[in-house]
Specification:
The structure is a single chain. By secondary structure, this protein is mostly helical. It contains four helices and two strands; from the N terminus they run αββααα. The protein has two domains: 41 residues, no CATH class; 42 residues, no CATH class. Helices cover 47% and strands 5% of the residues. The radius of gyration is 20 Å and the shape is elongated.
Length: 87
């Protein structure tokens, strides 16, 4: 059974589009930069790898400075608490 949007009668796969966060233009899938405003996109895999190396580093890469700082300090506090509790 195909699911269709009751308001616009389109299939959900057709609704999901890649849109530039800077100029809001529709984009083809798989681009690394916007064809209209030349804004470079961040790669989710790079953010993931950085977060695996050090929690919060992926958020810094994506531009989320406050969230990255909170994750970094939170992970440091947890590590210190774990190291202190082990005999």
């Amino acid at each position: 059974m195909k699911v269709v949007c009751p308001q616009c009668t389109t299939v959900p796969e057709q609704i999901q589009e890649d849109i530039c966060p800077a100029c809001y233009k529709e984009l083809a899938k798989g681009l690394s930069a916007c064809t209209t405003c030349d804004m470079a996109f961040k790669a989710p895999k790079k953010a993931l790898m950085r977060s695996l190396i050090l929690p919060g580093l992926g958020d810094f890469y994506l531009g989320h400075r406050v969230l990255g700082t909170l994750e970094l300090f939170g992970s440091i506090i947890i590590w210190l608490a774990l190291m202190k509790s082990t005999p």
